[in-house]
Design brief:
Elements lengths: L3 E7 L4 H7 L2 H8 L1 E7 L3 H6 L6 H4 L1 H17 L15 H9 L6 H13 L8 H10 L4 H8 L2 H16 L7 E4 L2 E4 L4 H14 L1
Parallel strand pairs: 1-2
Antiparallel strand pairs: 1-3, 3-4
Helix pairs in contact: 1-7, 6-9, 6-10, 8-9
C-alpha cells in the first residue's frame, strides 16, 4: 500500500521552516509517510494582512524571542545556526527552482542546502551564483534548471501555489496539511504526523 502523504508548506526566508526542513525526512522514514514538498511565498499573504515586512521585524519583542528560540532549538537538534545579517532574505529564485523540482529526487537536498546557506552560512540565497553552486553540488545542470525556473509557466505555478496556500487558510510557515486539517509551526509537525498515523490505522 502506498504511504500516506503529508504536505509540507515552506518559505525559504522562514526561520522555523529551516528547523522543519532539516528533520522532516528522518520523521518520514520513521513513520512511513510521503512528503509533498510545497514551496510558496509568504510576502503576498503578509500583505493581505497589512504587513509589509516579517512580523518578527514589525514586533521587535517577538523578533528577539524568535532569534533566541531558534538558536536554542538549533543547539537542541545539533544544527549549526548563524543569525542572518539580512532578514528576511528574498527566496523567490529558490522557490521557483523548488517548485520546478518539487517531485524530483533532488528536492529534499536542494531545499536543505538553501536553508543551510541562509541560516547556517549567512549567504545571500537570492544570488544566482550561490544557487548555481548549490545545484552544481547536487550534480545538476544549474544553467538549465535556472533557465527553466524563469519560464513563464513555472512562475505561474509558484503564483498558483501561493494562491492555493491562501485558500487553505495558511498564514505562516512552516505549515502542514493532512487531509483538510492545517497545522502551523515546526512544533506542530509531530501533531500532523500523529493524525496521519491515525488515518493510516483506520484504512
Amino acid at each position: 500500500m502506498k504511504n500516506q502523504s503529508l504536505e509540507f508548506w515552506y518559505e525559504f526566508a522562514s526561520t522555523y521552516s529551516y528547523l522543519s526542513a532539516m528533520r522532516i525526512e528522518n520523521l518520514a522514514s520513521r513513520y512511513q509517510f510521503e512528503i509533498a514538498w510545497k514551496p510558496f511565498m509568504l510576502g503576498p499573504i503578509f500583505k493581505e494582512q497589512g504587513w509589509h515586512d516579517s512580523p518578527f521585524n514589525i514586533y521587535p519583542a517577538k523578533g528577539r524571542y524568535m532569534w533566541t528560540d531558534l538558536a536554542r532549538q538549533s543547539r537542541k537538534r545539533e544544527l549549526s545556526f548563524r543569525k542572518p545579517s539580512v532578514f528576511p532574505r528574498n527566496g523567490l529564485l529558490a522557490a521557483r527552482i523548488a517548485i520546478l523540482g518539487s517531485k524530483e529526487p533532488w528536492i529534499s537536498a536542494f531545499t536543505q542546502k538553501v536553508f543551510q546557506a541562509n541560516f547556517e552560512k549567512d549567504e545571500d540565497i537570492s544570488d544566482v551564483e550561490k544557487i548555481k553552486l548549490i545545484l552544481n553540488s547536487l550534480d545538476l545542470d544549474s544553467d538549465k534548471i535556472i533557465a527553466l525556473s524563469q519560464e513563464g509557466e513555472n512562475k505561474e505555478l509558484l503564483k498558483a501555489q501561493t494562491e492555493r496556500a491562501k485558500q487553505l487558510g495558511i498564514f505562516g510557515a512552516p505549515s502542514f496539511i493532512v487531509k483538510d486539517e492545517l497545522f502551523w509551526g515546526d512544533d506542530r509537525l509531530e501533531d500532523a504526523i500523529e493524525l496521519l498515523t491515525d488515518l493510516k490505522k483506520s484504512l
